[in-house]
Structure formats: C-alpha cells, structure tokens
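Entry 14. Structure prediction run on the chain below.
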Amino acid sequence: MYPWIRAVVCILFLFALCGPGFPQEAPGDQARAPEAPKEKNPFDEIVKDAARSPGLFTLYKTRKGDLFAEINPRQLDQPFLANITMETGLGDLFLQAGIPLNRGDLYFWHKVNNQLFLFKKNTSFTADPDRPIRRAVEKSFPDAIMGAAKLEAIHPERKSLLINLGGLLLTDIPGLAQRLTATLQAPYSLDKEKSHAGAFKAFPLNIEMDVELHYSTAKPPDLRLPTLADPRSIPLRVHYSFSALPEDGYRPRLVDDRVGYFMTARKDFSRDTGETPIVRYIHRWHIEKADPQLPLSPPKAPIVFWIENTTPMEYRDTVRDGILEWNKAYEKIGIKEAIHVKIQPDDAKWDPADIRYNTIRWITSSRPAFGGMGPSRVNPLTGQILDADILIEAETLRNVRRGYKYQIAPLETASEPPSSASDPAICTIARDGVQDAAIGALTMAARGDLIGDEAPLEYVCAYLRKTITHEVGHILGLRHNFRASTMLPLRDLHNRAITGKLGLAASIMEYLPTNISPRGVKQGQYFPASIGPYDYWAIEYGYLPISASTPEGERDELDAMARQAGTRPELAYATDEDARGADPSALDPMANLYDLSDDPLGFARQRLELARELWKRVPAKLPRRGESYYILRNAMNAAFSMYASTLEVPVKYVGGVVYKRMHAGDSARTPPFVPVSRKKQLEALDLLDQAVFREGPFRFSPDLLNKLAPDRLYDQFSTTEQLSLRVDFPLQEWVASIQRSTLDHLLHPRTLARMADNERRQSPKDTLSLPEYFEFLTNRIWSESLAGKPARGSFRRAVQQEYLKRLIKLLVAPAPGTPEDARALARSELVRLRHSLASSLSRHPANGKKDAEGQYGDAHYRNALSLADEALKAQLLRQLEPAPARTSR
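Output returned:
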C-alpha cells in the first residue's frame, strides 16, 4: 500500500473517533439514565407487609387483619379434609364448646373465571373413573358449594392463586344461624360486620384457623338462657382444620354386621356384579406393627391421647387408666402399647381442636346435655380415623357425688317417662348414667352406708373410669353393644371372684346400670372395671394384621372371626337400632339399656323392688336437720324415674322376639329369630300387673307427700321446667304417665302385629295368642267389674280408663298396621266389659248410700259404660255407612 493512502486512512479513522457532529456522553451519565418502568406485581403488593406462614395452603395475615391463602394450581380440584369445631359455645342446649359441627368432610377448590369456589364433595356415590358410568354418577349426585372467594391475584412465577380466605370463612358455612334459630326459637343471623378472623397456624399437612362469628337477632327468644349475657348477641368462635388426605398405605377393612363398628358406606356403580354395589368399611385407626416379625411389637405410630390441662388433678390418673385399659386388647393381637397418654402442659400453645392432637377435654355447662361424648373424624373414602376428642362435662361428677341430693338437671317430669334415642352417633351414657350413679349414692344413704353426705371418691372414680373407657371404645370405632349385659347369671352379679375375673358384662360398650345389691346381699362391684371378652374380640376383628393386598382379600379370615358369634354367647351383639329403649319397634327383650344378667326380667324385678325400698327408707334419712325438703323430693323423683325406665324391659317380652345377628352356617342350633315363650310373656305380664296396674306400689303416707316441697330459689339458673313444675308433688301425673306408656306399648300396632305373626312362628302350646292376651289384660285390669265389685283407688280407676280408651281406639279409629283380628277382639272385650259394668251397676244402684270411694266408683262405672255404648254404636254406624261412590273418568 502507498504511504499516502495509509496516511489518509489513519486520518479518517481518527476523525471518526472524534465524531465532531455526534456529541459523546460520559460513562457516568449513561448509568444515571432512567429505566423503563416495571409492571407492578399485584400478588406481592397485597401481601408485602403480611406475616407469611407456609403450609398446606400458605397463609398471609396483613396488618389490617385480613387472612389470605395461596393455593397452588396443582391443588385445584384435589380433595382435602375439612373439620369444623365449635370452640366456644352457649354452655347449654347441646351447643357447648368442643362440639363438632361436621363429621369430617372432603372439600376442594375449583376455579371459575375470577373466583375460587369451595366445594364439599359428595362422597356417598362413586364409580371407576375409567368407566363410562362415572359420567352418569357425576351428573346425578352433585357436590355442594360451601362458599366462593374472589381471585385477588396470580403469582407471576408460581402461578399460585391468592384469595381472601378469612373473608370466605366469615360466612355461615357451619349453618349455625339455622341451628340457633331452631334451638332458641328466635330468628338469628350472622352479623358479618362484628365478625373477624382469629388465630391461625399453618403446617405442611394442615392449617388451623379460628374465626370469631357474631350472631344476632332483633327479636330475642322467650326461652330463659342464663348462660347468655344478652340473648340478642351471641359471639362464637369456630375452628377450621383443613388437612391433606393421608398417604400412609392404609388398607380399609370390610364391615360385618355381627361385629359392632361404625362404618363408612359408599355406593359404587362400577360394581354391577356381586352381593351389593354398596361398599362398607369400618372406622378404625391406622395401627401397624413396627416389626411384623415379632409376636409382640410396638406400633409404627401409636395413638396418642392428650389429657387437656383443664382436667382436675384428682381425676387425671383415673382418666389415664381408663384410656390405657384398651392396650390389653391390642397386646392380645401382638401390638404393644398401641395407645399412649400425655398431659397437656399448662403453657401449651396448641389448641385442642388442632387435628394433630387427640384430646380428653373437660368442659363446663349450665345444664349437662350429654355428660360425655367421644366424637371422631374419619376419611369418608376409607373409614380411617384421623382425629378424635372426648368431651367430659364438669357437672357430671358433681352429680355422681351429690346428685341424689342436688340434681343439676331436674329428674322430675310428669309428662313422659325417660326414653332413649337410637341415633348411632349419639352416646348418652354419661348423661343417663350419672342419674343411675346418683341412685347408687342414694341407696348408700338410705341403707346407712354413706359416710358424710356425698359418695366416696372411690365410687366417683370407678364411674369416671368406666365412662372414659366406654368413650375411648367409640373413638377406636366401636358401637354400643346392648346385649353384652346378659353375660352373667343374676346370682353372680355380686360375686367379686367372678366379676373380678370375667367382668360385669361382655363389653364396656354397654349402658350398664349401677350394680346395686338387693337387700341382704353383700355389695359387689358397682361399675365394670375392665373391658370384656366381646371388646377383645371386636378389636381383633378391626385391628388384627392380616396378610392381604386388598380389603376383599381379607374377607375369609374376617368371616372366620365373625362366625365365632354363633357359638360363643359372650360375643353376641345388638346395638342402638336393636334396643331403642321403650320404642315398640324394639322386639328383642335381651337387648336393653340399663339391664344386667342373663335374666333381664329378674333384674327388672330387683330394680322395681329397689325403688320401693328407696320410697320407704329415704324419708327416714333425708333431709337432715336444716336441709331443704327439696332433697327428699329429688330423691323421690329419682326413684320414680328409675321405676319408669325399668318398665321398658318387661314390656318388650310381650310379643317379643329374640334376634341374633347370625349368618348361615354360624350355628345349627338356633335360627336368627326365636319368639319369646308363652311362659316368659305371662311372667312379664304378671310383673306389669303388680307394678303398674295395681294401687299397692304407689301408696304413700300423707305425711310423706306433704313433705315433698320443691326448690323455691328461683334465679337466673332456674330452668323453664323448674318454673313450670307444680309446687305440690304431682303423684297422680307420675303414676298416670307410667300407666299410659306401659299400655301404649302393650297395645301398639307393632306389638299386636308381632303377636299375630308369632302364632305362625311357634307351636300352639308355646304361643300367647291374641285372644288369650286380650282376655288377660281385661281380666287383670277390670277384675273388680268382672267380679261385680266396685273399683277402689284413683290409680286403679285411671288405668282402667286408659285401657278402655285404647280398646275403643282399636275398634273405632285403629292406627295403621293394626291387625284386623285385634280390632275384632277389642270389640269382643268391649262387649264383655259392657255387660259386666251394667251388671255391677245393677247390684249397686245410684241412689244407694255410698262413701266418697263408692261415689267415685259409681261415676267411674257409669262413665265407662257410656263410653263403651257410644263406641259400639259408632262402630256399627260406620259399618252401615255406604261406600263412597266411584267416579268414572
């Protein structure tokens, strides 16, 4: 290259670098240049000052008090468990703190446009997701919308969704407004302005949240409720637990109706072959051996119960012992110390409603509604128990100690005798049992065996222990067994050598009465001290490790266990829907509440005699000098209540059928149904004649009746029932109530229909036929008229009138289900009665001189004769009425 050319190129290059037409910027000037504005992240803006709690759903609590939740997109449409608990309550009317407001439901989030809907999954119906029938199921059985929340923001990277969870939960998801309205008889509604989100905690598998809900009404209820400061305002704390479904390899276990477990049932439309499309799994915990090769191994994860720090110190050991009693049953199937017990520290930061803790909670009530209960929450898909609590009302043990003198919930009722519900989810052992335990203390006082004026601590703790063990049985999945009381002969009930070895009953899941000895018999155990043979067997059925990969693979081994009920009487099972108290639908006299021994009728006879003993002895012992006569009235009411409830046993023998839950091949000796023999039915009728139809049991001295004064200290704690009670003792009403309930059962259509059917189930010589039955009742109840004698005694005349009314109703207006033969027999008995009444009146003319009893008797016979004539006439007219004309279309 030429030198001059090289020189020109260099000059041009240098000139370009100088760039005189393009001014240069200093390096510092370039760093200070403004950037383009970034787009704000609404997610971060909303939660920038919030306290963040990562967990199942990450929670954010803002300074304003709003509670936000971050939902991962993978969590949409995925079910999680939702448990709702009433953390504070009204202290009355079954609205106490600790009451569960649902039974463990599956919820899921579902996005619709800019909203997130909270759905409750319908778990009762299902189908294989790979089969077309699944689409039909989804169209037929909808899920429920529990609430909806606005989608506040979406995280730009995580794509997670942010909602105001606190705002969503400040709605009436538990339905408390409706519940308060129905209970208090006033229109309550949620006041959202005075409601707010409360404490919360987040964990990897669950979140725990409190909301403070305020319910109000402009029209306060007329119901007296001293537990409320002002009935126009009811603030309640509700606790929510949202938790992930467990993934622990749990295998459900199939139900068998011979063993009493709570169950989860689902209808599977994919199962178009086999016995039934309904799949039923028992409720049980996931308990596995840590080392399956060991004959006795600790569990991988024990069930841990926490005794709440509200529990009185003097009862904590008893509560612990009652819980740990069940470890005996687990050890028998090779699992050592399956249950652990701990005490909640006084400075514990966790809440008993937290689903991670199973607690024994001590609660307070103005009037005990249930005494004790053991609610649990289960996975509705598998039946796995995930959480449980036992609630014990503080007043319960006070009533055991002193209830015979100062009953917190008055026993007196002259309208209806005590009865029991058959809802399997309801357990009233502590509520009803405490009244029966008070009878035990009253008997001690009457017999002079009481030191001081309250039951000894040993007695109270024995009652508490059996109650705790019973409630823990529910928490382990077991239902009531109301046949378990029939294990021992009547003569062995107070033989401590026998009861110490075998127990008082085959199962602690019974409602057992206080075992009070008859006069002259040395007292044995008052309450059962251990689980029984049925309990060991039931735990074996539910928890025995079985080598199988599916629930159906366990069926043969489970069936072999359940078959034992056919050959071992101590394993017989009957539950709530079998017993039903005094309900005429209950056909089995061997399945009762508050009976004992293999002779329930003999035990009932002893209890009736005990009531008469108390009526006779108590007035000499109570009240003590300076005490109110209300104590005596309370004792009389307690004895009357026991007398009335005891009569639920003999009435079930009449037209009764012993029912055993047997399958084909269980036993060749007896079928499932065995009608009660004629002899036993007549024995029961004889007992009812002596206990109900006669004057004798209810004869009390004027001196006693004039001492039965009520409690006259009326204050905010007085109940509506107390205020409405008669001041004087309602003896006539008590007796009439007992007579009415007995006759209602004896002449109920179900009873009469069973008797008619039993004539085909038994040989004639062993059958109590309907004609013999009606004749028996008329002969015993109207014996004076049939013998031509006047009726003496108001109780006697009352039962005769009640029987006459029922004969007339059978004839003129029979209830549905009444056998036609029963109607004809009722007419026959009315005709027979009419003749005897007319004959009796002809022997004792109205113008004859009579004392007051004679005048009563005369008026009574004439009234009965008139009623019989009118009924027979009405029935004749009804038969002569032309049939309604038929119209053509």
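The longest helix spans residues 852-880.
Filed with the rest of this week's runs.
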